[in-house]
Amino acid sequence: MNINLQNIKSPFFIGVAGAGMSAIAQYLRGIGMNVSGSDRFFNEGKAADIKEKLEAEGIQCYKQDGSGITPTTDLVVASTAVEDTVIEIQKAKELGIPIIRRAELLALIAASKKTIAIGGTSGKSTTTAMLFDILTYAGLSPSIISGAGLVSLIKKGKIGNAFVGKSEWLVIEADESDGSIVQYQPSIGVLLNIDKDHKEIEELIQIFGTFRNNSQSFIVNQSNKNAARLSTQLANDFEVNADNSGAGFVASSFVQKGFKISFKINSQPFEINIAGRHNMENATAAVAATSLVGVSLQVASEALQHYEGIYRRCQVLGNKRGVWIVDDFAHNPVKCAAAIKSCQQAANKVVAWFQPHGYAPTRFLRTDFVREITAALRPQDEIWMSEIFYAGGTTTKDISAEDLINDIKAEGKQAFFLADRKNLPDAVKPRLEEGNVLLLMGARDPSLESFSHWVFDNL
């Protein structure tokens, strides 16, 4: 399909409340397009806050009933989750309106700018936000299209996952889950890690290999063994390392106190208000990318001192009777383990709760969830799970979160199944004391943010 971005005036987004879709919708509105969209959550009376913020940006929102698509609509954008049977897809076809997938549109946008694309199975949103903050602090006025809201932008009343700057620099997340990462040809590509998530390792290696070949310059995190396999030692490859010797950008001297980390990159001290060793690696990748743009390590360090974090990534909600409550987007095995480990540095005991999403993904990753979470838990720590979040569609419900809990329990860890998450506050209260952390993890379910605040209020 040959679509010229400059000729588009009135795009319509199906599933506009989603993180990826809302970001692109806001970006296109920011460059002057007449943007509208719909979402099935609007039909159900959900995602009202997102709808309100989109409308505040001038994006007209509709129920997912076809009423928003008119003869003036010149492009329909759909995520991979939107099936051809959806009424709006059918209406677009009847009216002869071009239909494009979200990733294809993002690739068109990326091709129109000097793009830094962040790839990897974990840490993309955080690294994207760090990059944006460094470039902004350095006065380079970048744009951003992210999968999560930056706290600094959320404070301004925005969803926070998109911003249109004045320069040609654009920072984006490059998603591997649907293979769309191969469509981007960025000025700078960044590979954070490769771990099993959505796809097997070897398939991911091939996908990220194409991403590497499509990038003019490429940054590889050597600390991740699978990502290191794609370091080809070419002239335009740059390495980042955590506590390893070698060329490139080397991070060392990691220390975490509470929810703050400090470390050095090539002897330059850094301090960031965020938890976890994995975030040292994310920061090092961001610093390496901005160095290629011309930002000094000192300026990058100053910028990250002011980093405020992103929505639901180790987001500290507060302290209730001596217990810290942390909300996190962790949803694959490695991310869940990393979230637990990052909280362990701030607590003598971590009580973690996790809501898996999707029956097929949970089935695919069952062994990995059990292995990673079991290895992460200390004897005093606990893992709780509620039933798998079901977003609709055709699937086989032949697995339960209780199966994962039983597997972890068989490994000698403290593991508990709680089918109805509404019972969580009462269930964990007797098991928490001053100095503990209650970590809430999960993704895809739009009610998780309100749930985490409800838990805080009722703990």
Count of separate structural domains? 3
How much of the residues is beta strand, in percent? 15-25%
Largest sheet: 10 strands, mixed
Question: Number of helix segments?
Answer: 16
What key attributes describe this structure?
ten-stranded mixed β-sheet, Rossmann fold, six-stranded mixed β-sheet, Mur_ligase_cen, 459 residues, UDP-N-acetylmuramoyl-L-alanine:D-glutamate ligase, alpha/beta, Protein-Tyrosine Phosphatase, Chain A, single chain, globular, cell cycle
Summarize this, please?
Its EC number is 6.3.2.8. With 459 residues, this protein is an alpha/beta fold. The chain has 16 helices and 21 strands.
Describe the structure.
With 459 residues, the protein is of the alpha/beta class. It folds into three domains: 94 residues, Rossmann fold (3-Layer(aba) Sandwich); 192 residues, 3-Layer(aba) Sandwich (UDP-N-acetylmuramoyl-L-alanine:D-glutamate ligase), CATH 3.40.1190; 144 residues, Protein-Tyrosine Phosphatase, Chain A. 35% of the residues lie in helices and 23% in strands. The chain has 16 helices and 21 strands. The model has no long low-confidence stretch (mean pLDDT 92). InterPro entries: Mur-like_cat_sf (IPR036565), Mur_ligase_C (IPR004101), Mur_ligase_C_dom_sf (IPR036615), Mur_ligase_cen (IPR013221), Mur_ligase_N (IPR000713), MurCDEF_pg_biosynth (IPR050061).
How are the SSEs placed, and which strands pair?
Elements: E1 11-14, H1 19-30, E2 36-39, H2 40-43, H3 48-56, E3 60-63, E4 75-78, H4 87-95, E5 99-101, H5 102-111, E6 114-119, H6 124-137, E7 143-145, H7 151-154, E8 162-163, E9 169-173, E10 188-191, H8 201-214, E11 217-221, H9 225-228, E12 237-242, E13 249-257, E14 260-265, E15 268-272, H10 277-293, H11 297-304, E16 315-320, E17 323-328, H12 333-344, E18 349-355, H13 359-376, E19 382-385, H14 401-410, E20 414-417, H15 424-428, E21 436-442, H16 448-458
Parallel strand pairs: 1-2, 1-4, 2-3, 4-5, 6-9, 6-10, 7-9, 10-11, 11-12, 12-13, 17-21, 18-19, 18-21, 19-20
Antiparallel strand pairs: 7-8, 13-14, 14-15, 16-17
Helix pairs in contact: 6-10, 6-11, 10-11, 12-13, 13-14
